[in-house]
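Weekly puzzle thread! Below is a chain. First person to post its structure in token form gets bragging rights.
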Amino acid sequence: MKKIALVGCGRILPRHIEAIAANPELSIALLCDKDEAKAKVASQRLGVPYLTDYRQIRGVDIISVLTPSGLHPRHVSNVAELTDAAYVVCEKPLSLTLREAYEVYRRVAKAGKVLLPVYQNRYNPLVAYVKNLIDSGRLGKVHQFICNVLWNRNDDYFKIDWHGTRELDGGVLYTQASHYVDMVHYFFGDVVEHKGIGGSLRGLEVYDSVAAAMSFQNGTVGTINATVSTYRENYRTEFTLIAERGTLRLAGTNLNTIEYWDVAGLEKPNIDFTLDHVYGKGHDTLYQYIADERWDMFPSRKDVLSGIRLMEMLSY
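Winning reply:
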């Protein structure tokens, strides 16, 4: 049984609790938040102890860092250096700047620990299926993609103290669309050129909308359009891929639906990709990989750094 401590009792905490609870080989041993009231409520719900200082955590195998985005570099590095946990899970994004990301990887490696970045959308069944399809060569050369993340985050969302700030949030590419930035790296490899423009029409310190175009080392070109300012509610998440031997479009929660399929010699797959959670079920798979010690299934350092490079250049 692997013991896990969760640091940060905010919006994403319930998803991690659910995913860990679904795995009999894992258990939550401890919760931590500097806000004692939050930590106490969560600890009473789970029946486990809590702390208000993550530097005091001892006796667990894994520590998952679920704090505000801009605090991830400090918290991950300190957890690696000051606790006895061998593995550090970090919710997306690892950092808001490339310099900080390099420093985190250096400090974690120097401490002899293993960093496990959370990009759970890689594990969603349809995303994994398309990744295998691209890698198999069945599509031939991939010419172009269009990725749209058209969501709503209302004014109450931005009343949470760190949301919408340059210091801790980073903007729509970091806090909402970073999984899709990671996905295009996962599909196509290294970005070699990118151009983008952002808007902050809601008076935030960061961009609430970004339109970006990019090209990859393999020749694929594409766009990512992301916003948190659609009217009233989330509108669409969609990904269109145009290849030498096929065209397809994915949509739905975390891209769980095939809306269009025309692939040479391959019928539309008759597979149920339904996801019943707003975050998808990727966290369940992530923690299963932890239980199975499948460290190779986590994003590579190269992918993470490349994604942060792109997000930083387009967001600041």
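Puzzle host: Confirmed. Bonus trivia for everyone else. The longest strand covers residues 142-150.
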